Amino acid sequence: MSAKSLARIIDTPSPHWVGDGFLVRPLFADLAFTNAVSPFLMLDYAAPVAFKPSEKPPGVGPHPHAGFETVTIVYDGEVEHRDSAGNTGVIGKGDVQWMTAARGVVHEEFHSREAAKRGGVVSMAQLWVNLPKADKSAPPAYQDIRDADIPRVELANGGGVARVIAGALDGAKGPARTFTPMNVWDLDLKAGASITLPLSEGENLILPIFHGAVRVAGKTIGAGKVALFEPAGDSVTIEALEPSRVLLLSGRPIDEPIAAYGPFVMNTRADIQKAMDDYNRGAMGFL
What we know:
Layout: E1 6-11, E2 16-18, E3 22-26, E4 40-51, E5 59-65, E6 68-76, E7 79-83, E8 88-91, E9 96-100, E10 105-111, H1 113-118, E11 120-130, E12 141-145, E13 152-154, E14 160-166, E15 168-169, E16 172-173, E17 182-189, E18 194-198, E19 204-211, E20 213-216, E21 219-222, E22 225-229, E23 235-240, E24 244-251, E25 259-261, E26 264-266, H2 269-280
């Protein structure tokens, strides 16, 4: 195997609130919505925050999306979802919500009502995944992926566990259905672990570090930073300097123009205008 070369370590900006329920740090920083991270678009990580009990669930009210997919991974707490395609659900610790906005959907995300009443710690990540032009007009869809349905792969030498959300590792295939080839692996690494993972030649590789610290390609990368690799090569070696949570993202780049405006990601400004018009005339539905 040939190791992928480290291209850049991304220092992420300060956190900001999304609605009143999620204090997130945009981990892709200035590379968000660029081909450097394709087929992914952006990644918000909400580190653990304790919320007081409340009768009014914190969160984000109705808003549209079109042209891509949102992937929400819950680490602590519960997130309640509702959208204009008729999908509803509550995901908790370890669960994943994979929503395909495609031609357009309106949704809302709040702490679940029961969790809000109890109060407690909330932590989650939301990844945006781009769609090829041919699939941006697909109907909206919703995948409710439960923690129990995500296969776990024991890593070499007892180095930790990989939850395979999308893609495949050591014969374990993730339950997420994707439009383009990609891996989304949630790595829980033990201190002192050194693991080499097989990847695909020509695919982008991104390693956001949520907790702990790791060493890759001779560089130490701590929590809140992201390692971006060159597409060439078919493996990566990660050394955990302490117990670490890493989200491994790899995938075939979508070689198309990216036009992004707020909650819409298309190929041209004209496509963006059409999405805005569709939303304003109610074609994406209502909540």
